[in-house]
Amino acid sequence: TTLLYTIKFEDCTDIDSEMTSLVQYVLVRSDLSKTWPLGAIIAQACHGCTAIIYQYRDDENVIKYTEDVDNMHKCVLGIDSEEKMRDLSEKLKINDIHHKLWIEQPENCATCIAVKPYPKNEVKKYFNKFKLLN
User: Fold this and answer.
1) Which residues lie below 8 Å from residue 97, measured CB to CB, with a gap of 6+?
2) Which of the chain's termini has less CB crowding within 10 Å, N or C?
3) What is the 3-state secondary structure (H, E, C) of the chain?
4) Which pLDDT value is given to residue 11?
5) What is the pTM of this model?
6) Which residues partner with 110 through β-bridges?
7) Could you tell me which of 102, 24, 89 has the C-alpha nearest to residue 59?
């Protein structure tokens, strides 16, 4: 039996028809692709997403987001340096946007930011300048 999956690639910063839809933004360092295997990079996003969902497992948005696992909406974006990633993390902290800055060990380097699911209209302004991870 062959399974067919339809994947819709979209610009995650476009305005949804439903502005209250929950979205989880995930930013991964695109510069890592020069030296890290693809699987290791994907693992960073998985670590960050798992950590933030677990950390906020009792949060209303997380509960709603995970009630329908077949229709979760994630936007995986690229950011081109650790410095920019740490700067964005500070900006998110200042604005009380809950997120996990994943620090890979033993390298001790920031590799991913996973944001708790939020209504898109509440957080998209922080991510408009980033492009889909390529």
Assistant:
1) 115, 116, 118, 123, 126
2) N
3) CCCCCCCCCCCCCCCCCCCCCEEEEEEEEHHHHHCCCHHHHHHHHHHHHHHHHHHCCCCHHHHHHHHCHHHCCEEEEEECCHHHHHHHHHHHHHCCCCEEEEEECCCCEEEEEEECCEEHHHHHHHCCCCCECC
4) 56
5) 0.86
6) 103
7) 24
